[in-house]
Amino acid sequence: xxxxxxxxxxxxxxKALTIGDLERAKNCYLQYLSLQHDIKCVIALGxxxxxxxxxxxxxxxxxxxxxxxxxxxxxxxYLKVLQERHFYIEAKQxxxxxxxxxxIEIVPIVGFDADKIMSDFHKxxxxxxxxxxxxxxxxxxxxxxFSKSLLLDPTTDFIVxxxxxxxxxxxxxxxxxxxxxxxxxxxxxxxxxSIFYQNSIYRYLILFLKHHYENNPSKLNLLVNEITxxxxxxxxxxxxxxxxxxKFARCFIDYINGESDNIxxxxxxxxxxxxxLYRFNYNYKIKNN
Length: 289
Description:
single chain; about 290 residues; mainly alpha; 2 strands
């Protein structure tokens, strides 16, 4: 599509907005964004979602952006969407990251509606991202106390636990938090802990795999996914379980490949983690394929 055609789409969208035809305007912006990225179009489309009383769609749209902070207009719209969704927790995380209060008030959901959010969450057998982010509308104290109970609950999926821990870290929680990992009670201080993808041992393991499987990209992708899931099970206490990253990486590869001759102190950890994965029905593991 030519530059003139793209320009025509914007003109059509703007004309549709002047006559209140939100559906046509939305389609024009969606078509434009499928061909070329433009922050103004993202904001315009997001505003249409807000007019349609669909702040969830505006939020999803923004989460596809790689940078929500550099452009002032985009950042202000991001805060507006957080306000519409009552995402008080995410707003607190942004404030902590920036080291300053936000220039907008975001009100959490409290009382009966907050109780319902937590009650509904407890009833879920399978938790989607949309289910999880509803917790962001709780106030900070309620979110922390509810999350602490989930971290101690042996039935809580390890991915949910890892996500909760990341959220505690992003909030800068300075008090010790207890968590049950592989049936054992552990603890961590979120303010002194790196978020999952910045964990030094996890990053070393990924680099190790990339180096050893650079000529086998299909196997590499599977192993990266596998080690990511493995580390999520023991996060945020990865350093407690893996003290020698190089030795563990070699044991992990041997274990995955069925080479049981290389038995060391990490074999039990691998067995325990895979038992945990099996308990949560993660049956797509490489080891079982």
